[in-house]
Amino acid sequence: MGLFKEYIEAGINGPQLDIARRAQLKRIGELRQSAVVTYAARIASLPQQVDISVSYDDILPFKDVLDGITGERVTVLLETPGGSGEVGRDMVELLHERFKHVTFLVPGMAKSTGTIMCLGGHEILMGPTSSLGPIDAQLLQDGKRFSADALLEGFKSIKEEVEKANGQLNSAYIPMLQRISPGELQNAQNALEFARATVADWLAKYKFSDWTKDGLPVSDDKKRDRARHIADELAKQSKWYSHGRSLRIPDLERLGLKIDDFSKNAELNDAVMRYHVLLRMTFEGGAVYKIYETPDATIAKRFQVPALNPEQAANLFGAMQAAPTVQVEVTCTQCGAKSNVQLDFAPEQPLQPGSVRYPDQGTIPCPRCKSPIPLVPIRADIENRFGRKALTPQPKN
């Protein structure tokens, strides 16, 4: 039986998820014989527009959870789509200021800045389905995101074409060139060099610190050469084509990176996979979109979601102890439009006029602006208040 099915059938949710998750995190720390901390973001199925990227707002909660752990070694469970390279660098430097040995463990994905962070560790642990990604800096212009490396390579090609044409510029390039200033080109160059330089510096300093060959330490020059090669390869948009490309263990090993496969340790693999499933259930079953966590404490960032007001809660409490169904009024946080949602606790309940059934996906579109209205936290609130489980799945008609 799969882990998702095991936990779902056990009816684990809410505070139980937090307890079970931290128990597995503690188990990982014991198996690793190190302190352990999580920095993770909800990657998919976002019901609202929130910032899941590595950003300045992460520094304080990340430092706060670090303040609660001790020891010389730390294992960091990382799950992120990327974000600010500067902030990622700050977070890794916080780790090295506190610990003599830093390991990054990626149960799922750590892309872009997340990859840069992993390359700042002494060890990287991944499984068969874990992935890192390219580190080519991404720029935003006119609402579109594009690769700094691709931009610079494009301008290099245009320059070479002009030189071959005796100084004549193809008029098709003029609209594009008019939108890009010299300052923006320099910003692209700086962003790309920041990623390359950070990775090359960290690899030589940390990942390759104990590199030996034939029982002898590898020279500093060879470490720096290997580090620069890996940094350059990871930053090439022309090599990977897509910034979202998943680079798994074989891809990284072909670049010359040593990756430890946690799945080869059966007990560690079980603990990591259980933690990752519980983490996914936490994200997808409620309002949480970021977690900073140790075995002893959790800091979570949550969506702003419509909740039961005190009057609704008071009216429901007496009636819901044995009621087969409940009607909840929810409000769209974007435009203020209201909807009535029916949640059934017993089968074959008729749909009340003016209400919609609670949907399998846990969100309904606003009747006015069509923005998604998240319902999972409201359902969890009702179930927790009355100590009863609603039907799963809910009726369809």
How is this structure best described in words?
By secondary structure, this protein is α/β, with parallel strands linked by helices. It has three domains: 3-133 and 246-302, 2-enoyl-CoA Hydratase, Chain A, domain 1 (Alpha-Beta Complex), CATH 3.90.226; 141-184; 310-386, no CATH class. The protein is built from 14 helices and 16 strands. A seven-stranded mixed beta sheet has the order 9-4-3-2-1-10-11. Strands 12-13-14 form a three-stranded mixed beta sheet, with no helix packed on it. The longest helix has 26 residues, at 182-207. The chain is globular and about 75 Å long. The model has no long low-confidence stretch (mean pLDDT 84).
Kindly report the CATH topology of the largest domain. Answer: 2-enoyl-CoA Hydratase, Chain A, domain 1
Distance between the termini: 31 Å
Strand content: 15-25%
Gross morphology is globular
CATH class of the largest domain: Alpha Beta
Could you estimate the helical fraction of the residues in percent? 40-55%
The count of strands amounts to 16
Number of helical elements: 14
Number of domains: 3
Residue windows where pLDDT falls under 50 for at least 5 positions? none
- Structural class determined from secondary elements: alpha/beta
The CATH architecture of the largest domain can be named as Alpha-Beta Complex
